[in-house]
Amino acid sequence: MDQWRQTRALIQELIRAAAGQRAQLVVLPECVWPAYCIGNRSAYDDARAAGLPDPAEFLTEIGQTACELALGVCVGYIEEHAGRLYNTAALLGPDGALRGTQRKCFLWAFDHDYFTPGELVEPVSADFGRVGLMVCADARRPEIPAALAA
Q1: Neighbours of 144 (CB within 10 A)
Q2: DSSP element (H, E) containing 13
Q3: Would you report the helix, strand and coil content of the chain in percent, each value rounded to 5?
Q4: What SS3 class is residue 125?
């Protein structure tokens, strides 16, 4: 959890490298921000108290980069909501606007130690059409892609 500054810089570097290759959409890994394995909830809370930016600030920064480079970005991050943490994917358009999010529904073993499962599965409207966002193991549950396709 203490390497978030380097992670933040690496994410920016990867987005810019993809833009340099004329990408129109960059898809970053699950929970790339600030990290997938956070250790435990108290480690995350300690990192936030020590300066780890709010997830909304992170998404704003990614949105600004997406707008500057005129490309879409799908990024995995830790979402905070009502005192809970979610493993969430966000889709930002080339104008930097948030198009939608999807919380991981099917959690693996240690995921339950700090994440709350998502409950809603809905497509997101992107500039190129409606898309379904799935986070990792959600693709293993046939009802999730089926719900998105329906």
Answers
A1: 21
A2: helix 4-20
A3: 40, 25, 40
A4: strand
